[in-house]
Amino acid sequence: MKYAIGIDIGAAKIKGVLAGGAGKILACLEIPTGAKRKRAAILRDILKFIDCLKGEAEVRGLKLEGIGVGVPGTIKAGKLVFGGGTLKQFVGVDFKNLIQKKTGLKTALENDSAVFVSAESYFGAGKNFDRVAGVIWGSGIGGGILDKNNRPRVPARAVEIGHFIVEPDIKNEPKCGCGKRGCAENLASGKNIVRRYYARGGKMKNAGVREIYFSKEKAARKVLDDAYGYLGRAIAVFVDIINPDIIVIGGGVSNLPEPAYQKLREYSRRHLVKMPAKKLKITRSKLGNFSGALGAAMLLLAR
Ligand SMILES: [Zn+2]
């Protein structure tokens, strides 16, 4: 079996796995990103983090094919060229060469939603479907698509679903990291659900999306209902264009209980015509917190 390290760099957490070719996770690790820090400090942590997983492979006597890295944003030739709404301090960083030089291992870089979709397509909730779409619903919002029928095989592609405009005329909202107002991420990502809750007079201290979900407060109900509605609109456009067999949701906010999914399905269907609305399947990630990291490792492992 072939082995590789996979790293998923998110705005809230950095996750990593030591994985084998058949989607087997041998070891996993997670640290907070500390995204408000300067990029040099975060990069130092990422390199230390990789060292730990490398050490784990050495202890087990495994030869590594390399390191796969998933980051939010647009990737061109191993560089992050657009950071979207999160981790903007990494724009321009040549991750591929930097990690390759420091570790001596072959490194591949891809968008975080694309690697998430790839793992879920082959080993998770999308296993029995041909055309799999994924949405990362976390601090930011991202999307990806993989069609397993494509010949020759092509890797999963990122789709900037988070920056689809879902409320063009909205005012009184700060601009998203993409430079616009009224995109799905601006109104429905985890970070922005919390921001909008406090902007509407939310009373809980240090609330996260989960606390907001379980709260009976008016502000909490309103911002979450808005979030389902706005993300639902973005999903409807996504479905209209690519017609996927299933949509798999991952990321920090995806851990909300099933009634949140019922709402999301209901709001997505509202904006779809009859047939795609009828066949719409929206489900939670099956591989859980480490699906992105596993997908990143798969960049180095032939399927
Ligand atoms: Zn945006």
Automatic annotation (TrEMBL):
SUPFAM superfamilies membership: Actin-like ATPase domain
Pfam hit, one: ROK
Family to which this protein belongs: Belongs to the ROK (NagC/XylR) family.
Protein name, UniProt field: ROK family protein
Organism: Candidatus Tagabacteria bacterium RIFCSPLOWO2_01_FULL_42_9
